[in-house]
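Hi Q.,

Before the meeting this afternoon, I wanted you to have the PBG prediction in hand. No need to reply - just skim if you have a minute. The sequence and ligand are here:
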Amino acid sequence: MAFPVTRLRRLRKNTILRGMISETSLSADDLIMPLFVCPGSKVNNPILSMPGNSQLSIDLLLDECAKIMATGVKSVLLFGIPEHKDEHGHVACEHNGIVQKAIRAIKERFGDELLIVADVCNCEYTTHGHCGTIVDGDVDNDLTLETLASQSLSLAQAGADVIAPSDMMDGRVKKIREMLDANGFSQTPIMAYSAKYASGFYGPFREAAESAPKFGDRRSYQMNPANSDEAMREIALDIEEGADMVMVKPALSYLDIIRRCKDTFNIPIAAYSVSGEFAMIKAAGANGWIDEERIMMEVVLSIKRAGADIIITYFAKEIAAILNTPRH
Ligand code: PBG
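Predicted structure with the ligand bound:
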């Protein structure tokens, strides 16, 4: 039945009606806040391209976790800035590695009140900044699987609740699952960065995590932004290998991939709204060119509407604070 009988504006008349027919809702339960942990004590190195985010030593990281929890956010994603790097990323597998120490400290202070997702990758830990072991100028897939598996085990032993491989090597979910299962961690879930694109949006993160590649780029392992069918293959393979959750990354330029994943698979989907997405909104907001808060909420809503169950965002704390105030 068309106009004039049907008038869609009727249900947009006031806030209560609009709220009642809202198809998508946000909750602090959906959000994960990424954090960067570095050596030392009382260290707070602000990341200039990501206002409000810093590299934090463990003592200050604990304070930040308390602030995050106070907003209602219940999960963090940890990245480490190690004291030393090496050729293969072995430092990432050490019992006393920076992230391992941070995980133990968080667990000691907050127990199971805060869910810790541990990013698994070599790029922050290798001298060359690539995500794995280099052979003949490129990352060797199968050699890298070994370090990824031992890094995962070490993070699980430290107390990580979820293991999140972000390297894009073939077969890593299977290898990590086998390693965890063989060592008593069959109950530790894997959140796989399944459709991770070779993206310009990671720029600010690479400053934050000091992980920019020293030569070349990541196009031989991360996905071509032109592809969507291939993302479905990546996701299907990760599910087959044992992923408990899959991820699409970045989020904002890849909403179609999130939606297609949602329509195709029956598995929890995480979307990572990455550093460049955050930086653009912050920069335009700081200039007064956009209403930062409004756009922050609109963007996160669009990611949820596209089909994401979980959203990893540097805005997590700010979004949760707004969700706590009535009328949002
Ligand atoms: C590590 C990793 C990256 C990000 C998350 N894990 C960087 C990269 O692949 O270069 C990017 C996150 C962001 O930009 O916020 N491989």
